[in-house]
Amino acid sequence: MHEALTGLDPRISLAIHSVAAILTVAAVLAVAALLRAKGESSRAWGVYESGAPVRGPAVAPVPTQYFQIAAFFVIFDFEAAVLFTWAMSAPAAGVAGLVSAAIFIVVLLVALFYLWADGALDVGADSRGSAVRPA
């Protein structure tokens, strides 16, 4: 059985995978169509998620600070992936690897403290409850 699976042409494997993915999506859409409530107007779903009535349009400007926080998260989360790979190869890397990882962590901490001191991480409300207005 193993020889039959590994001996497939890569194009046939791709075709089988594509057909399986398309059939899975079609099955999920079909089940959703069968389970969906029929004949109800969109007004019946007015208060849906939070239970609060809708106030204004759903499209509103998003403050750029949220995008800043997301970018900082991606940057500092990538560091975890780099350190994880270092931890997996730490015995082979030896002291030189430990020193490089320490320098990497120090540089990231300096960047984090700079962002903190600069106020780039101040988003939301301050301790008094008023909104923080970044410069």
Name its key features.
0% strand, 63% helix, mainly alpha, 4 helices, single chain, flat, 135 residues
Q: How would you characterize the overall build of this protein?
A:
The protein is mainly alpha-helical and 135 residues long. Among the domains are: 2-38; 64-118. Helices cover 63% and strands 0% of the residues. Helix 3 (64-88) runs antiparallel to helix 4.
Q: Kindly report the oligomeric state of this protein.
A: single chain
Name the average pLDDT: 80
Number of helices: 4
Ranges with pLDDT <50 over ≥5 residues? none
Structural classification: mainly alpha
Instruction: Tell the overall outline.
Output: flat
Major β-sheet annotation: none
**How many beta-strand runs?**
0
> SSE order in H/E notation?
HHHH
Percent of residues in helical segments?
A: 55-70%
Give the N-to-C terminal Cα separation: 65 Å
Q: What share of residues are in beta strands?
A: under 5%
- How large, in whole angstroms, is the Cα Rg? 26 Å
How do the helices and strands line up, and which of them pair or pack?
Layout: H1 2-6, H2 10-35, H3 64-88, H4 90-118
Helix pairs in contact: 3-4
Short description:
With 135 residues, the protein is mainly alpha-helical. Among the domains are: 2-38; 64-118. It is built from four helices and no strands.
